[in-house]
């Protein structure tokens, strides 16, 4: 092993070269500032030629320097007055001269007192900064240790340890402002991991005792894993239901559930004020994905390219005041999505290029007072879109370029006060359009329907067809 050379005489040439090149001289202004800060940097520079070497003034040195300057000032002023004025100077003038000298000395003392106070303040502030940095380093160390411990618990084999890891990671996200998004990313990543839900089926017929025990163990493990995932969703829901709180809020963070598996998931009552909550490309086969009572004032709720093969997605009684709920290119192959009794006062809800090959989309008793709903280029085949008993007092509903091969658009009982509804050309498609007959030509003009459609269609929806239970 090669031993590094010791620092000695061999290093002197480079040092000399550095001195021959000349020390880097700082401006005089820098030295004046250093004197005011209580440093002897300029004096050290004059002695050594190295401005990096400095010596702070001690308190006793300040006092000695003050007395020296004061004595010198008294001596100089007295000599000046003795030489300028005659010996027969009046006593009153001598008293005034002495008083002036004392004022000058007091002024010099005040300057030194200010310098000492300024230096003391600088030292105190520097000490506070060092303490704050030390506390920050210690706090960061504690947070990192908590994060490591929670991550290890989340990856444990036992479900009980994983549950403890969920609570530990959520608690850390509450406390750690700088690392909150990282903690949330870990919890969301856990939900994105592959998951086989419990089947609920009994062991296969003819299975021996070992196979039945293995089946029960597998079902139990799946149920425990489902409970861990439900706990993560519950932790997120609980924090998004609360009002935003500075330094602790989760509302401005992003939640990435892309391609995650959801069966039953309860996000009811949450408040979306910013960030992105992404459900892109999820597969929702059965159960209820519940956003009942959601309040959205900003941010995005993205279901782009999601697949809903069955089950229900519920936005009943939700309030949209801003933001954007997107179902662009989503596939509805069954099931129901409901905005029943919701309030659309702002923001956007879009189904751009979505495919609805079954099931229903319901806006039963929804109040449209603002915002936009778009079904642009959406394909409807055997689907129903309900606007029955909805109230239009503003906003915009757009079916531009939508394609209907079969299905129904139900406007029975709708009340139209204002706003705008644009539709595709329904002519030639076997669409069963049910407008509100009390509005007559007014709803026809609003919907831009072909002539004669209102007279040729029937009104009303039976209780059996109503989407109230959606």
UniProtKB/TrEMBL annotation:
The keyword Transmembrane applies. It comes from the Bacteria. Residues 15-24 have a biased composition (Basic residues). Residues 1-24, 197-224 are annotated as: Disordered. Residues 209-223 have a biased composition (Basic and acidic residues). Keywords: Membrane, Transmembrane, Transmembrane helix. The chain crosses the membrane at residues 59-80, 100-118. The keyword Ribonucleoprotein does not apply. Gene3D superfamilies: E3 ubiquitin-protein ligase SopA (2.160.20.80). This is Pentapeptide repeat-containing protein. It comes from Glycomyces niveus.
């Amino acid at each position: 092993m090669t031993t590094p050379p010791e620092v000695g005489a061999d290093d002197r040439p480079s040092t000399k070269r550095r001195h021959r090149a000349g020390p880097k001289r700082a401006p005089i202004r820098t030295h004046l500032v250093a004197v005011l800060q209580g440093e002897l940097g300029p004096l050290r520079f004059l002695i050594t030629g190295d401005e990096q070497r400095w010596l702070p003034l001690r308190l006793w040195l300040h006092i000695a320097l003050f007395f020296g300057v004061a004595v010198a000032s008294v001596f100089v002023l007295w000599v000046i007055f003795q030489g300028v004025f005659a010996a027969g100077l009046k006593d009153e003038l001598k008293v005034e001269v002495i008083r002036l000298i004392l004022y000058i000395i007091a002024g010099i003392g005040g300057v030194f007192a200010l310098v000492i106070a300024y230096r003391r303040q600088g030292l105190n502030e520097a000490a506070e900064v060092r303490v704050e940095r030390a506390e920050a380093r210690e706090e960061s160390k504690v947070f990192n240790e908590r994060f490591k411990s929670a991550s290890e618990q989340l990856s444990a084999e036992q479900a009980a340890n994983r549950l403890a890891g969920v609570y530990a990671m959520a608690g850390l996200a509450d406390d750690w402002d700088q690392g909150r998004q990282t903690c949330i990313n870990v919890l969301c990543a856990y939900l994105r991991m592959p998951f086989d839900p419990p089947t609920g089926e009994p062991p296969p017929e003819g299975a021996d005792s070992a196979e039945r025990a293995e089946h029960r163990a597998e079902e139990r493990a799946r149920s425990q894993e489902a409970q861990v995932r439900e706990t993560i969703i519950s932790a997120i829901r609980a924090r998004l239901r609360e009002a935003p709180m500075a330094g602790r809020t989760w509302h401005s963070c992003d939640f990435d559930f892309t391609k995650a598996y959801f069966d039953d998931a309860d996000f009811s009552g949450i408040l979306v004020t910013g960030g992105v909550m992404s459900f892109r490309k999820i597969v929702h086969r059965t159960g209820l994905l519940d956003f009942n009572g959601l309040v959205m004032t900003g941010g995005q709720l993205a279901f782009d390219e999601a697949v809903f093969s069955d089950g229900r997605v519920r936005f009943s009684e939700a309030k949209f005041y801003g933001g954007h709920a997107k179902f662009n290119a989503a596939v509805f192959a069954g099931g129901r999505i409901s905005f029943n009794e919701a309030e659309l006062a702002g923001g956007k809800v879009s189904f751009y290029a979505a495919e609805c090959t079954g099931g229903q989309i319901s806006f039963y008793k929804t109040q449209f007072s603002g915002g936009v709903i778009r079904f642009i280029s959406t394909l409807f085949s055997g689907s129903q879109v309900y606007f029955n008993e909805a109230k239009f007092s503003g906003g915009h509903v757009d079916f531009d370029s939508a394609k209907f091969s079969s299905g129904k658009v139900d406007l029975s009982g709708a009340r139209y006060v204002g706003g705008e509804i644009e539709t595709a050309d329904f002519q030639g498609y076997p669409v069963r359009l049910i407008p509100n007959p009390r509005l007559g030509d007014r709803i026809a003009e609003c919907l831009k329907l072909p002539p004669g459609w209102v007279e040729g269609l029937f009104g009303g929806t039976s209780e059996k067809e109503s989407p109230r239970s959606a």
